[in-house]
Design brief:
The complex is a heterodimer of chains A (555) and B (352). Chain A is mainly alpha-helical. In chain A, 55% of the residues lie in helices and 3% in strands. Chain A has 22 helices and 5 strands. In chain A, helix 5 packs across helix 7. The termini of chain A are far apart. With 352 residues, chain B is mostly helical. In chain B, helix 3 runs parallel beside helix 6, helix 5 packs across helix 6 and helix 7 runs parallel beside helix 9. Classes of the chains: A mainly alpha (555), B mainly alpha (352). At the A-B interface, helix 2, helix 3, helix 4, helix 5 and helix 6 of A face helix 1, strand 1, helix 2, helix 3 and helix 4 of B. Strand 5 of chain A pairs antiparallel with strand 1 of chain B, so a sheet runs across the interface.
Chain lengths: 555, 352
């Protein structure tokens, strides 16, 4: 005899998920009175309706998201009750001032980009997916702003969090985050909102952003970031599905293949340049955990980007006739493992500390040992630099940015990714609109000069975006005293003299740098200087730049 | 564990006193009231612009030179686009809470209604009316939701775009709620044709005025015109007319308690979206520098979209005659709708 249950008594036949999805997809129609405006055009032509891989409707989506939210906010409350901040590592939280200043803008840009992709293809099967992504990104942006506010309210030094969105628009480091976020919403709708955002940024790089980084947060006593960001990451599979489906619809038209190849190349390389610079630095230089058994950023990159993305997502596209730029993946891998890309970026952020809005602490002997273990040869190249940094962290010392004794040479800025050209031998110079520009790599030159143009390999590309604005941050303060620049940036605490950025974690007024400590140094634009050189001088300068620099021993 | 990277052995607020160690409020924007609301903290200035902090300007542009967000994405002008704060103060948590509660309520209504056989008690003519005309209405909500999804890309500030985004989310939820509601009660009603709604929407002359009005909004490039036309013109003249003036009035009289409950959530949605839109448009209509020209622009939008909405409403009139029990006449419902529209226009010093 079967057992009688309440469920059996009350059960009634409902609509199947497949049926519900099909009916919701059938809400659309082809307008016949007034055509929809193509406000955001694309050079891609998509005639086949993309399929919905997720089969979810809004009825189940909202309650699922509310439940996820309840867990997140419950965990934040629990973290406070558990006195999380007493045990958190300030070295880590300081870098969150930079990360959380950047990330809400790319997130909300992704929400906006749903307006751009939703009219590109026929049919409405993906509309529910786009709707969920739009609301997801709204979730991500505001949940991250909430997390930042929470840090500001509970962490020992709130300065930097308190000016966060202003700092995002001004800082020499956040400029790379703006390139990332604007890349989702400007120019060819398919290039920006599908290829750059979903096919590459979300599919390839959110694992390092939203999975690898939270793991490191937990190692530093920060349980809030993993709670928020793993919840964020749980939304990403939907977005990856949207991007893949739309790209597969585009793939069906052979005339799109050239554009797909162009955009895969541009998007992969620029995501590597930007995400690896930022997240690599946070993970490797923001941590105090030097367990040699944990993965380095390079090892995580191999797992998430090389194995997961390149081998299982990019490579299979070859069977559809798409040329995959294998060499670019290898180049990116070698930049991380052989050319110390992440370490050179970490060094650059540290050199520029006075124009930051967070604290950067020196790496110590314990850190050196781990770096050398994970990246053999690291100590020879970077050990003395960090010793100098520690030595020059006391107010009254000559600021490291301008200290000739150190031997560091301030880098040129890449006109494409806006990340500095830290791998000196790879820098190339190219002309764009009749003017000289510097690029971190030949692929960056190709991106700015050949991909972002009105024609690509003989094919007109009228919808493609353009690089614009005052892209080299240093140009803004060319010839300006460092202290005046910091005042203009508003990176000064409310006493009107103490800097928000500090090159140490000493929470005592007597140890903190003020405007007086940094006055008397003039900022310069490497690009303006390069353009002002005669040809022979420029040639010599570039040859010298390619040779790199040597940090002087620090005793 | 003691925090090793801190000079004071703790990373907690108050562990040390130094410059700005108590600076625990965002200090880069001016709150609307004395203290910033949670909504303001998580919303204001997340979308930057060259006036508010983008010292490098937009760094990628469209081929015609426009940046990511430009003021001329709408014909309206403002001396301070950043002033607007959405009265509903919606951010992600409140949005999911509200949407989720609505979905729970709607599903409970449908499940309990079906269990009690409520749909079998519908007056036969009412059932057919729902099949065709509520079935057609779901496309209206969908079209407006899609238009708002488009519009949420265009505003110059985060506050405008987020209010538009949540409006889109509400509309698209409602379109799916109606779709699934009809599909589920249709499983229990013999001879139910779930395709009839779309056919009616595309072909029935009663709905072609509405389709023209909706497609006109969908085809508009100006995001603010879309937002304005939907919430200040179409909704009072057609949306509320059909939802409140027909479905919610006629349901009970025709033995249907489910439809009014499913639709009621939409009226709550609209109250919020209406408040948001009026607040934004009021700011622009009373702008010190551009108020007069904005009012002229808004007046032109009223004339354009009210003409379409009037035509749409009038074509819907025969639907009021379809059910057996007719508690309200079309004229009565239309009078309420007209009164509502007049009040909205009055708030903004606009007229028909």
């Amino acid at each position: 005899m079967s057992t009688l249950t309440l469920n059996k008594i009350t059960a009634q036949k409902g609509i199947s998920v497949a049926d519900a999805t099909r009916k919701c997809a059938d809400l659309g129609w082809n307008p016949s009175y007034v055509q929809e405006a193509m406000t955001y055009p694309s050079d891609y032509k998509i005639t086949k309706a993309p399929r919905d891989p997720m089969k979810q409707v809004l009825r189940s989506y909202f309650s699922m998201q509310e439940e996820k939210d309840n867990r997140v906010y419950g965990a934040l409350d629990a973290a406070l009750r558990g006195d999380m901040f007493r045990n958190v590592e300030p070295r880590w939280v300081e870098w969150m001032k930079l990360f959380l200043a950047i990330i809400p803008f790319p997130e909300i840009s992704a929400a906006r980009s749903m307006a751009m992709v939703s009219r590109l293809a026929p049919g409405e099967e993906l509309r529910t997916g786009f709707t969920m992504q739009m609301v997801d990104e709204f979730r991500h942006s505001t949940i991250q702003m909430n997390l930042k506010k929470w840090y500001m309210e509970n962490y020992i030094d709130p300065a930097g969090f308190d000016i966060t969105e202003e700092a995002f628009g001004k800082c020499y480091a956040t400029t790379i985050g703006r390139q990332f976020g604007e890349g989702f919403i400007t120019g060819d709708a398919m290039t920006s909102a599908c290829m750059y955002l979903t096919v590459v940024a979300e599919t390839a790089f959110t694992n390092t952003l939203f999975v690898a980084m939270p793991s490191e947060a937990a190692r530093n006593g920060d349980y809030a970031l993993p709670t928020v960001f793993l919840s964020v990451q749980s939304d990403e599979s939907r977005h990856i599905g949207n991007g893949h489906s739309l790209m597969m619809a585009a793939l069906k038209e052979p005339e799109n293949h050239l554009l797909i190849e162009r955009d895969m190349k541009y998007a992969f390389w620029q995501n590597h340049a930007i995400v690896d610079a930022a997240i690599g630095t946070f993970i490797e230089y923001g941590t105090t955990d030097r367990d040699k058994n944990k993965e380095s950023y390079a090892e995580m990159w191999h797992r998430w980007v090389y194995e997961d993305y390149y081998r299982t997502y990019m490579l299979p596209m070859e069977k559809y006739g798409i040329k995959i730029h294998h060499d670019d993946v290898t180049l990116a891998w070698e930049r991380i493992t052989k050319k110390n890309y992440v370490h050179k970026i970490g060094q650059f952020f540290a050199v520029g500390w006075p124009v930051n809005f967070w604290r950067i602490e020196a790496q110590t002997e314990k850190d050196f040992e781990w770096f050398e273990h994970k990246y053999p040869g690291w100590y020879a190249e970077f050990g003395d630099f960090w010793k100098w940094y520690a030595k020059l962290s006391k107010p009254g010392q000559k600021v490291i940015t301008f200290n000739e004794e150190v031997g560091y040479v301030y880098p040129h800025r890449c006109w494409s990714s806006l990340v500095p050209c830290v791998i000196r031998e790879d820098m190339v110079v190219g002309e764009l609109n009749g003017q000289l520009h510097t690029f971190a790599h030949e692929i960056d030159r190709w991106t700015a000069v050949e991909a972002f143009a009105d024609e690509f390999q003989g094919r007109p590309t009228p919808a493609m975006g353009r690089f614009s604005g005052k892209r080299e941050w240093e140009t803004l303060y060319d010839g300006v005293d460092l202290a005046d620049a910091i005042v203009d940036l508003n990176f000064v605490r409310s006493d009107g003299k103490t800097l928000i950025p500090q090159p140490h974690l000493r929470f005592d007024d007597k140890d903190m740098w003020t405007l007086d400590h940094v006055r008397g140094h003039t900022l310069g634009s490497p690009l303006n200087a390069l353009r002002g050189m005669d040809e022979a001088t420029r040639k010599a300068h570039l040859a010298d730049y390619a040779k790199g620099f040597t940090i002087n021993p620090c005793n | 564990m003691v925090a090793t990277s801190s000079s004071v052995g703790s990373g907690a607020a108050g562990a040390a006193i130094f410059a700005d160690s108590e600076s625990r409020k965002y200090r880069y924007f001016e709150p609307r009231a004395k203290r910033a609301t949670h909504y303001e903290d998580v919303t204001v200035d997340v979308q930057p612009d060259p006036e508010r902090y983008l010292i490098q300007d937009w760094i990628i542009s469209f081929p015609d030179g426009r940046g990511a967000y430009e003021k001329n994405f709408t014909k309206a002008q403002s001396s301070n686009w950043h002033a607007f704060r959405a009265p509903d103060q919606e951010w992600e948590r409140t949005h999911y809470q509200r949407q989720s509660r609505i979905e729970v309520m709607v599903q409970a209504v449908i499940a309990n209604g079906r269990k009690s056989g409520a749909q079998m008690a519908f007056d036969a003519a009412w059932g057919k009316t729902l099949q065709k005309h509520l079935g057609a209405w779901k496309h209206v909500e969908f079209g407006l939701g899609c238009a708002l999804m488009q519009a949420q890309r265009g505003g110059y500030t985060q506050m405008i775009n987020n209010a538009t985004l949540t409006n889109s989310s509400y509309k698209l939820r409602l379109s799916q709620d109606i779709t699934l509601y009809l599909a589920e009660i249709g499983m229990d009603i013999a001879g139910w044709d779930d395709e009839a709604g779309k056919t009616t929407w595309l072909e029935d002359p009663m709905w072609q005025g509405t389709r023209l009005a909706v497609e006109t909004i969908m085809g508009t490039e100006d995001y603010l015109e879309q937002y304005f036309a939907i919430n200040l013109v179409f909704e009072p003249l057609v949306g509320e007319l059909f939802r409140s003036g027909f479905l919610m009035q006629f349901g009970a009289a025709n033995n249907d308690f489910m439809t009014p409950s499913v639709i009621a959530a939409a009226e709550g949605d609209y109250e919020r979206n209406l408040a948001n839109t009026i607040d934004l448009i009021w700011l622009l209509a009373n702008d010190e520098a551009f108020g007069a020209q904005n009012r002229a622009l808004f007046q032109s939008w009223v004339i354009k979209h009210a003409a379409l909405a009037d035509k749409a409403a009038k074509q819907l009139q025969p639907i009021w005659s379809k059910p057996h029990s007719k508690p309200v006449s079309f004229e009565e419902a239309r009078a309420v709708s007209e009164e509502r529209f007049a009040k909205i226009l009055g708030e903004l010093n606009l007229s028909r």
